[in-house]
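User: two proteins, same treatment. go.

Assistant:
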Amino acid sequence: MIRVFVIAGVRFYRDGIAAALSADPRFTVVGSAGDVREAAARLDTLEPDVVLLDLAGADAPALVRSLLESAPSARVVALGVTEAEDDVLPLAEAGAAGYVTREGSVEDLLATVESVAAGEMICSPRITATLLRRVAMLARDRRAEEPGPERDLTSRERQVVALIDEWLSNKEIALRLRIELATVKNHVHNILDKLQVRRRGEAAAAIRGRH
């Protein structure tokens, strides 16, 4: 059975959520509170699996962080959020494990609590897309920060490597970039030296392998 704690400032809203959960045999409501401060003293002893946190009109990310300081093992589900990127990303970065939007139904709530307790996440396609974009951005930034010989390549040398990867000859690269063949050969020589490889194909493979 999934142990749930409910935090919501409005009493009838809090009681309504608790009643909906209690009516389902998959869940047991171990407690509720009007705010994070009130909940903090009880979360350590109650040990809920999931904490539902209503974020209407609140400094949402700060509340999530504060809550996780009180119950670091709990998974926090943010209630009443919008699908806007400015809402979702700060909550994800603060540690929220799931979301139920303002338009979410009771069925959405129950499904989200169950999935979050299992270490999964159910959210709308729009929120999913937002989170995936953020993951992709972080991965790109991390790659950019990684040390590597390719970082020493000039923009022109990167162009040349990209064309080598398309299996273009030096002459074809010269025509594509509208530069002299000797200039291309010089770029290739510098690329091989910087990447510490001996062949053109190895240079392209080295860059491709790092990205």
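Protein 2:
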Amino acid sequence: MRPPERSLALTRVTEWNDGAVRPVDDSLAAEEPLEIRIGSAPLTVTMRTPGHDLELAAGLLLAEGIVHSSTGIAALRQADPENGTPSNRVEVTLANPDLNLDALQRNFLSTSACGLCGKATIDAIRRRHLPRPDPGFRIDPELLCRLPDVLRASQPVFSRTGGLHAAALFDAAGALLAIREDIGRHNAVDKVLGWALLQNLLPLSRHILLVSGRGGFEIVQKALAAGLPVLASVSAPSSLAVRLARELGLTLVGFLRGRRFVVYSGEFRCLPAAVPHSGPSV
């Protein structure tokens, strides 16, 4: 699998190895800003690894509730190159031109400036009336344990740099449908969900999302916006992520490594006999 264009940068470094010193070439994960504009108005700027920029923009619009399907996007394009330099701007035309862009811009600014606070943020998610994930979906724990190996084997940029997050979308049989890498874990998820949106696959009611980092609140929010019933990560979730997953019925799995994982919410989808929680709630 070839890395996307511009996703890698080559640099000269000095290596110390057991007392021996030598100059070597080293690959770095690229990081550049991407501006997303709706019409002529700037919506946000995110730092990302170049590649799959249109999917990133589409996934971000989905996660923020600006669109709910591909029909909400009338046009999506990468801006023309400037002075021969590839563009770092995506231009979006929405099917609904009456959207309040000023309110959207304020929301992006406040989120990036002050972070997320628990009660107010979950209240905002409730007001979006996101549907609960499919309660009838099930996944075998043995299948779940096989997914991280597929993820690692499908990361071309990580294999060269060791410095990227990844998100992968699997179907109910464990077949890999899409994998995206990015220096930001949230961007990797947006790219995968943007791909699904542009392929008209939403809602992803019989799919599994696996992320290489931790399962934070924003990633749970994005999974719910796409209709996913199962979100798994190789690391730990946050307390707010667990609260939201339990409230809206998402199966949240952490520490998926080897033949072990921890289920924080929605045990009934992946365990034959769910054990009730006896400890304190979050």
